[in-house]
C-alpha cells in the first residue's frame, strides 16, 4: 500500500493538481487572487495538454509508444535523482551574488521587461554553450534524442542539466540587478512557455501561430531547434523572445519544403535507456582515452561536438557549411540547352 500511495503522490505532483485539490478541500478561493494561487491554477496546463496530445494521437491512430517511452523513463529517473539540486543551485547563486549586483531592480512592469530581456540573454548563453562545448552537450543531448516532437520531450533532460543551466542563468540575472522575486516570476513564465513550445503535430499541426511567428519564439521555431537537418543545426537558442538569436545570427525560420528530422546526428539505439541518457558521456570519454597527448584530451571536453584531433571535423558548423555550399553549387550550375537555328 505504501508503494501505491507513493505512486499516487507522484502522479499528483506530475499533474500539478495537488494545490488545486487543497484549494477545493479548504474552499479558500480567495487564494486565486494571489501569485501562489495563479501559479497553482496554471501548473496543470502542460500535463493536461500532454494527455490531450497523446489522446488525439490514439484517436487518429498516430500514437507510438516509442515516442513517449524514453521521456517517461527519463522523467522517473530524474525525479528520484535530482529533485532538489536545481533549487539549491538557484538559492546558492542568489545568496552569493546578490550583494555584488550592479544595481537592484524593483517589482514593476518596466523592470519585468528589462528582467526578461536579461533572462533571455542568460538563457541564450547557457543554451549556446550546451551545443558548442562538448561536456555541456553531454548534459544537454538527452533532451535532443527523441525522434519526434511532443510535450513529453519537455521532461527529457539529463539530471545535471537543470543545475548547470540555472547556475548560469541565475548568476547573470542576479548580477544584472534582477530582484529575486522578479526572477522567480520570469522563471515561471519561461518554464510554462518553454514546455508549451514542445507541443507536437498531434495537437498543433502548424506551430507557427500566425503573426506571432514573427514576434516571439513559437513551437515552429523550436521544432527547427530540435531538428538534425544541416540547415537547422544550432539555431533558435532563445525560449520566448527571439531577440538574441537575431542579434547573434542564429535565428532560423522553418522552411515549408524541408521535412524536419528530429534527433541527434550520431547513430544510437533510441530504445536503450543507457544509450539515450549516458551515450554522449560514453563517446566523450572514449574519444578522450584514444586521443594522443594531454592537450588533445582536454580539447575534447571544451571543443564543439564533432571536433576531432585528426582534423576530420564533423561539427554542426562544418556540416551546415557543406550543405550550404552544395545548395549554392546546385543553384549556380545551369544546364546547357542546345538551341536549333533556322
How is this fold's topology laid out?
Layout: H1 2-15, H2 18-26, H3 35-42, H4 45-59, H5 66-81, H6 85-97, H7 109-132, H8 134-140, H9 161-175, H10 180-196, H11 219-225, H12 243-248, H13 273-290, H14 293-302, H15 316-332
What can you see in these coordinates?
With 342 residues, this protein is an all-alpha fold. The chain folds into two domains: 1-43, no CATH class; 45-327, no CATH class. The chain contains 15 helices and no strands.
Q: Which range best describes the helical content: under 10%, 10-25%, 25-40%, 40-55%, 55-70% or over 70%? A: 55-70%
Please give the count of helices.
15
Radius of gyration: 23 Å
Question: How many DSSP-defined strands?
Answer: 0
Q: How widely separated are the two ends?
A: 95 Å
Low-confidence parts: none
Topology order in helix (H) and strand (E) letters: HHHHHHHHHHHHHHH
Strand content: under 5%
Q: What do the pLDDT scores average to? A: 87
How many structurally independent domains?
A: 2
What is the global morphology? Answer: globular
Give the structural class. Answer: mainly alpha
Biggest sheet: strands, sense, closure? none
